[in-house]
Amino acid sequence: MAYAESRIIRVIKGRRPKVVVIGGGTGLPVILNALKEKNAEITAIVTVADDGGSSGAIRNYINVVPPGDIRNVLAALSDLPQESKDIFQYRFDSSDSFFAGHAIGNLIIAALNEMHGNIFDAVQSLSKMMKVDGHVFPASNEPLTLNAEFVDGSREAGETEITSKDKRIKRIWVTDTNDDKEPEAVLPVLASIMQADAVVLGPGSLFTSILPNLMISNLGEAVRQTKAEVIYICNIMTQKGETDHFSDADHVRIINKHLGGNYIDTALVNGAKIDMSKFNPADYDEYLEPVSSDFAGLREQNCRVITDDFIDQRHGLVFHDGEKVAKEIIDLAFEAHCRRGENNG
């Protein structure tokens, strides 16, 4: 059904497209902001396996789910005045030895976790205080440890340790940091995936931001079972220690392999040439080169490919153009919603 027709249906039924975005990292808020501008009903499911920076330090001190990605997502979806969001995002200067490097929001999340006894309720409470338009769900209610097996057969635990090895990763999995329980997502996380029109993976680090969520067994199963359009926003640049020399098809292949089948319905792939003279690698030394294109490899995996100039190269950085990506997501969400209605009819 054409996009114009879908917009009419949306007005008649008064229904916002339901979009679930799964991931973490710096690229996620860009997409969430753009989807918010397009009036999507957003649920962000955020990774909890980070162990670096302020998040890692807080996690080590008080055994809480790492709050950094959650903090950034809350800020992206908040309807508070910008000044209030700036305070929430403020990071103490390194000259302050006690609070050095910590963001105020991370400390607030840690405090609420202690007050509520779990991270899920803490984030829901903070979402209300921050007037979040949508839902922010930690992927798990418990801190998780990321584990990896490398191509050479060796293994390592912990995101920071894994990426520092600079080895090709064969597979990853997650374990509960505190005990031997099977990691699980709570019911609202699963329900959001099953009720979605579109489930979006990325953008973000393949092995450390996207796959850790999918390796939570019941969350991965929900992605396999959902009738939503499962969309992968392909990364623009390869990442040192994770996706060296990967093509777009390689990224999708790794996700599908971890899910156990061809579950990516559509890949959004940048087709524009990157002006490397505008790219300042000193700011992002973990990135190596533009992700190469392998259209045939994507089609072999029964993956629809949408290619466009999806990049924003202002200020010497390379980010996704949130507005363009969000438009494609909304179009695909409406298509999926209409298909579901036709099948139910």
From TrEMBL:
Keyword tRNA-binding: no
InterPro entries hit by this protein: CofD, CofD-like_dom_sf, Gluconeogen_factor
Coiled coil residues, start to end: none
Keywords: Cytoplasm
Protein family according to the UniProt entry: Belongs to the gluconeogenesis factor family.
Function: Required for morphogenesis under gluconeogenic growth conditions.
Protein's name according to its UniProt entry: Putative gluconeogenesis factor
Organism of origin: Lactobacillus jensenii
